[in-house]
């Protein structure tokens, strides 16, 4: 839709962000209350049991970072939302990480469409996932570097 009317790209991104976060909250509810009846079949359907077990252990280390990474990168966000509910992650932490990461992702895509129009479609489809992972790695490295330099 944003490609058809680039001037509305940010409006569409905002709508996608709200819808995605609400969907994430529903996934959290599935994990929190309905895991036996709904969560297990969903994870089984997507064949994500190994990933689910890995994610569940990582939540206890840093839930905010785990959710933010999933919300911004091509990692299956729905897996993280269900796992967050199963692990009983603080809902405020879950919601904040979801809002920040999903909104950033959709707004970045909107900005590309707004400024470059139809020319950026192939680029987004082919490279956005890779670029989002690279951006995230650079962000983490920058944080670690600042932390190391400030400790000296």
Please describe what this structure looks like.
This protein is an all-alpha fold. It has one domain. Helix content is 84%, strand content 0%. Helix 3 crosses helix 5.
- Beta-strand level of the residues, as a percent range? under 5%
The count of β-strands is 0
- The portion of residues assigned to helices is over 70%
The biggest beta sheet reads: none
In terms of quaternary structure, what is this? single chain
Mean pLDDT: 84
> What is the H-and-E element order?
HHHHHH
Tell me the layout of helices and strands.
Elements: H1 9-33, H2 35-46, H3 49-72, H4 77-86, H5 91-116, H6 121-151
Q: Could you give a short description of this structure?
A:
With 152 residues, this protein is an all-alpha fold.
């Amino acid at each position: 839709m944003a490609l058809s009317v680039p001037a509305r790209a940010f409006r569409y991104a905002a709508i996608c962000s709200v819808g995605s976060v609400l969907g994430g909250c529903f996934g959290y509810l599935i994990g929190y209350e309905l895991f036996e009846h709904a969560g297990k079949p969903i994870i089984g359907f997507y064949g994500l049991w190994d990933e689910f077990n890995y994610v569940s252990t990582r939540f206890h280390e840093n839930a905010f970072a785990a959710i933010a990474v999933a919300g911004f990168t091509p990692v299956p966000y729905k897996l993280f939302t269900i796992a967050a509910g199963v692990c009983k992650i603080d809902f405020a932490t879950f919601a904040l990480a979801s809002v920040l990461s999903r909104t950033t992702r959709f707004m970045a895509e909107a900005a590309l469409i707004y400024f470059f129009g139809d020319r950026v479609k192939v680029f987004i489809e082919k490279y956005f996932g890779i670029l989002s992972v690279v951006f995230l790695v650079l962000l983490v490295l920058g944080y670690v570097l600042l932390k190391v330099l400030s400790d000296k």
